[in-house]
Task: inverse folding
């Protein structure tokens, strides 16, 4: 079984709808992250969480909210989806202050979201 | 200007070729450096960390030049399976370990 899972894997929705993307991990990591990927722009950080009570905004948090329900679960919500939120969304985890040479972020398989 | 910039791709090379990717970063406070690999429509995966002294892992060699704020990845004897997008990534210790990604360089290795 995959260590980091995301649901749904694909979603098509309409403008104005509320959407929740879910991420679960079995790695026992404290830190979890949400990124979006757009062609030509690379991955950009939306929100990150260092533990259940610690939530931080990333580079592009406007229009998004998150919930860390447990150490293993981190959900991303689009309160009112708009077409420019069409993107590939990745959840990631790490077990320490990522940035050390031996630290790694582990990514889920991604959720492809299309907002019509 | 993007904080991390990579060579625009795609790179199309024959099997067995040597190919080099370049990456520059603008924040001198950047502390750690990585190359990630991303296959089409899949998640990024760590390829290798980049150390100040340079490091090698099989056919892959990574170099870091802090003075020039420049990172490179060299792939020798390219294989078809090396075809992917290569992402240059930096982090800052004082920003909670957030990864900052370059836009990626696509490599296509042809028979």
Result:
């Amino acid at each position: 079984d995959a260590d980091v899972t995301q649901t749904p894997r694909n979603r098509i929705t309409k403008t104005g709808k509320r959407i929740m993307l879910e991420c679960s991990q079995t790695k026992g990591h404290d830190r979890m992250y949400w990124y979006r990927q757009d062609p030509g722009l690379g991955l950009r950080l939306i929100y990150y969480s260092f533990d259940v009570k610690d939530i931080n905004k990333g580079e592009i948090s406007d229009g998004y909210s998150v919930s860390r329900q447990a150490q293993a679960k981190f959900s991303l919500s689009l309160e009112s989806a708009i077409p420019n939120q069409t993107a590939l969304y990745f959840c990631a985890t790490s077990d320490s202050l990522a940035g050390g040479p031996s630290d790694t972020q582990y990514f889920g398989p991604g959720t492809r979201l299309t907002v019509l | 200007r993007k904080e991390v910039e990579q060579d625009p791709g795609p790179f199309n090379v024959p099997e067995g070729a040597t190919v080099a990717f370049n990456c520059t970063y603008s924040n001198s406070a950047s502390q750690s450096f990585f190359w990630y690999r991303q296959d089409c429509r899949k998640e990024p995966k760590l390829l290798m960390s980049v150390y100040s002294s340079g490091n090698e892992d099989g056919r892959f060699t990574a170099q870091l030049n802090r003075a020039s704020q420049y990172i490179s990845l060299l792939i020798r004897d390219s294989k078809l399976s090396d075809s992917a997008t290569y992402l240059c990534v930096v982090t800052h210790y004082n920003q909670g370990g957030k990864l900052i990604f370059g836009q990626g360089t696509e490599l296509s290795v042809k028979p």
In short: DSSP finds no helices and eleven strands in chain A. Chain A touches chain B through 31 residues (CB under 8 Å). Chain A has a mean pLDDT of 90.
